[in-house]
Amino acid sequence: MKISRRLLLAASLMATVTAWAQQPDPPGQVRKGEKPVNEAYLFAHMTHSDYGRLYYSVSLDGLHWYRLNDGKRITDDYRGHPDIARGPDGTYYIAGNQSDASPVINIWSSRDLIEWRRYSDYTPDLKSTPGYSQALQRIGAPKIYFDEPSRQFVMTWHTPHLEGTPEDAERYWASQRTLYVTSKDLKTFSAPPKRLFDWEMGTIDVFLRRAEGKYWAIIKDETYPTLDWVTGKTIRIASSDSLLGPYKDLSAPISPNFREAPMLIPSPNGEVWYLYYEQYPGVSYGLSVADQLSGPWYQISGYTFHSTWDKYSLPPKVRHGAMITITRRQYDALVDRFGIEEPKQ
């Protein structure tokens, strides 16, 4: 088959334009010679093949992440959905559990993010939760947040109240509600657990942050998406003037449907928010960006496998966890201890 010179020339020009094309980079990065407000980042996560165990990746720009420890576990002791909080004395804490059916929440502590030691255990009386006596014995994704103004920790998790059925497996997930307890030392806890939200909708993977003069709850809307509930299985955000609510002004979806496990970090220059979320199960990660938590948010291009379009990257088959800011000294210590994957050229 003959191809005209005109078609060959058009194809050549298109290839040249594509090669020259350079999409704008995400906001929030520091200019050359500027000192970053946030020097480095740690991503504590699980993997697709070793779900529920602890792995590390790190980044210097909050966009490009590289595995530590040759892609091996950081510790064999931890099990859970990793989420790291820094306490008032600089100690780090991480919560987990052996499985959703386990009645016990386990807490580990670390001074350096390298060595983790079992710190305490907590068994909530789920059925004593006010207005939630029908709670099932399930504890999903416990997370810890330290609130500086009140000098207390808040530990959240999700618990359902309906079993799934062959006809409606999703009713189990739609029945998830976010519960919490408070603590001054993560050894003794308030009782009984309480519901964080009064919404009658499924919520999981919730974490709290304080910024911009408010408290923010970042959630996964766990109701299945339908024409009657188009926000299902997306990441959304709500705000409150108080740590324990009431939370209101629930946002429209920040992510597409079928995303979970949100993670929020400030950009290197401290002026922009990066919100990551997983397209499950282990397909890819999305990234949305805003200059204020109330939005508007937009999505950054990634996972296209075209270098001029991909503006962020994560190691393959990483699953959900937590991203936190760390200092450059902490970054260097982690790299010295575990070694870092060489960036691909």
From TrEMBL:
The lineage of its organism: Bacteria, Pseudomonadati, Pseudomonadota, Gammaproteobacteria, Steroidobacterales. This is Glycosyl hydrolase family 43. Residues 1-21 form the signal peptide. Gene3D superfamilies: Glycosyl hydrolase domain, family 43. It comes from the Bacteria. The keyword Transport does not apply. Keywords: Signal. Transmembrane segments: none annotated.
